[in-house]
Amino acid sequence: MTNRDRAEGDLVSVIVPALNAETWIGQAVASILSQSWPRIEVVVVDDGSRDRTAEVVKAMSDQRVILVQQPNLGAASARNRGFATSRGGFIQFLDADDLLGAQKIERQMKALLRARPGAIASCVWRRFTTDPLDGVVKPEPVWEIRDCLAWVVASLTGGGMMQPGAWLTPRSLIQLAGPWDESLSLHDDGEFFTRVLLRASENVFVPEATVFYREVGGSLSRRRSRAAMESALAVCRSRHKHLLEVRDDRPARRALATQYAQFAYEFGLAAPDLSRQALDAMRGLRTSPAPVAGGRAFRCLARGLGMAGALRIRSFFQTTSR
């Protein structure tokens, strides 16, 4: 019998992938252990760290904390390993530098226990750098959309997003949606939660619950690496496949066209071949994207010349200005 078979209904498993996270991992785990919901386990998956991440976790004298160590296989692999190790009927993914508000899980659990079977819970998320209490909340239109298909369509059409740590997900939904795609790097969370949402009965937004998202200076070069750009395009294709399987209408196709247009706008200069593939996929949807990519001038160009034409002009000016 596997851990998944003997999942405990009201136990919440918090899965934390960690890579060279010794600076933050102690604070992250402390925010989990201080949750007001009494039934908690923490599964930290050390993904081949070269610092003291594992030592920091081993020093925590709390039987609710489980440390799993593996070679550096990536965050998606670490999350899948954590899921396989966990026992909870509900799953919380949390990055190693983020924090949970003290009543985050309790408030979401109470909301889910009142909701329809198969619901997923979301919440407010705050951006912060040093002090979480100084964090900034920027509400986005999708937050309170209850219908999950409408949520996905609105998000892809420029309605915003949900930080991954804001979700609290029944284990059964993850089993239906399937594991994290370990071939992905950039936007792997968006791909995973799209599949989860497409199988959820409703999104229960809990405004009294909070997750704190730490803004740490990332590597722009990693986001612009060939592997990262290929991952972002693969995410677009996955959403294309899975969304049209459950909803094939003009709003859904327009949402998918919009994500391809945004990809082409973001990566057109760095990867023109991938941009062309994205534009081909966009045209295959036989509808125009929502005018959300770029600034006002670019959007005006796109309305007049089409996305491909606007991108050609933008590429020309960016290239000649170098």
Which helices and strands appear, and what pairs or packs with what?
Blueprint lengths: L7 E11 L6 H9 L6 E8 L5 H6 L6 E6 L4 H11 L2 E6 L5 E2 L3 H11 L5 E9 L7 E2 L10 H12 L9 E2 H7 L10 H10 L5 E12 L5 H4 L2 H21 L3 H18 L4 H13 L11 H25 L2
Parallel strand pairs: 1-2, 1-4, 2-3, 6-9
Antiparallel strand pairs: 4-8, 5-9, 6-7
Helix pairs in contact: 5-10, 7-9, 9-10, 10-11
Helix percent reads 40-55%
Strands of the biggest beta sheet: in what spatial order?
3-2-1-4-8
State the domain count: 2
- The poorly predicted ranges are 1-6
From the coordinates shown, what is the CATH architecture of the largest domain? Alpha-Beta Complex
- Major sheet summary line: 5 strands, mixed
Description:
The chain has 322 residues and is an alpha/beta fold. It folds into two domains: 8-217, Spore Coat Polysaccharide Biosynthesis Protein SpsA, Chain A (Alpha-Beta Complex), CATH 3.90.550.10; 221-320, no CATH class. Helices cover 46% and strands 18% of the residues. The protein is built from twelve helices and nine strands. The chain has helices at 25-33, 53-58, 75-85, 104-114, 148-159, 171-177, 188-197, 220-223, 226-246, 250-267, 272-284, 296-320, and strands at 8-18, 40-47, 65-70, 88-93, 99-100, 120-128, 136-137, 169-170, 203-214. The chain has a five-stranded mixed beta sheet. A hairpin with a 7-residue loop joins strand 6 (120-128) and strand 7. Helix 10 runs antiparallel to helix 11 (272-284). The radius of gyration is 20 Å and the shape is globular. The model is unreliable at 1-6 (pLDDT under 50).
